[in-house]
Structures are given as structure tokens and as C-alpha cells.
Design brief:
Protein name: Immunity protein 17
Low-confidence stretches: none
Order of helices and strands: HHHH
Distance between the termini: 31 Å
Number of helices: 4
Transmembrane segments: 20-39, 67-87
Number of strands: 0
Structural class: mainly alpha
Keywords: Membrane, Transmembrane, Transmembrane helix
Length: 89
């Protein structure tokens, strides 16, 4: 089951590499929405103790962490758009 699913996606992205760009745009859009709304899961505490979004929020404040989350989300969207147009046939 897992092998056939893996093979399906491998074939799909090999035949249509621009779908990877669409995926990045969708992920960036969800991250942007969650960043603007300020959901707590954007500041996950399960990572290491230094230099993650929770550390940035605790050190520099919520506004800086929210700004960085929005910047990273927009970066994901822009990379996805670039990836889409680079591989579009």
C-alpha cells in the first residue's frame, strides 16, 4: 500500500514537476493564514531550547515572531510561484 502510494506520487511529480510549486504555495498560504491569526501552534515548544519560534517569541516578543512567521510564509509562497513557473511546460 505504502509502496504503491509512494510510486504514484513519484510518478506524478516526475511527470508534472510544477505541482511541487503549487504545493509550496498552498503550504505557504496555510502558514500565512495561521501567522496572521496568531495561532499558538505556530510557536511550538517541542523543538530545541534555542533559536526556534518559541524562543524568538519569548526573547524578542510576539510582534517580532509574528513578523518573522509572515516573512517565512511569504517566502514559501514566492519560492512556490518561482518553482511553478520554472517547471511549467
Amino acid at each position: 500500500m505504502l509502496d504503491s502510494l509512494s510510486e504514484y506520487f513519484h510518478t506524478l511529480f516526475r511527470e508534472h514537476p510544477e505541482y511541487g510549486g503549487i504545493g509550496l504555495v498552498l503550504i505557504g498560504g496555510v502558514l500565512l493564514f495561521c501567522s496572521i491569526k496568531g495561532y499558538e501552534h505556530m510557536y511550538d515548544q517541542t523543538g530545541g531550547p534555542v533559536f526556534n519560534m518559541a524562543w524568538i517569541r519569548n526573547t524578542f516578543g510576539v510582534k517580532v515572531a509574528k513578523f518573522l512567521n509572515i516573512c517565512f510564509s511569504i517566502l514559501f509562497i514566492l519560492i512556490g510561484i518561482g518553482f511553478y513557473f520554472a517547471y511549467k511546460k
